[in-house]
Amino acid sequence: MTRQDATAVVTAACARIDQQAESRTTPGPLTGLQVVTDNPRPGLRRWALSTLSLRGGREIYAELHHDGTVLLAANLSWHALRNNHRADELASLGVLVHQNYLGACCHDVCALTSELARHLRLDSGLLLNAALAAGTSKNAPLIPVVVDFPGLTDVPDHARHPRKIQPVTTTLLPTDSDQAFKESAQELSTDLMNQFGLDPQL
Question: What pTM did the predictor assign?
Answer without folding.
Answer: 0.90
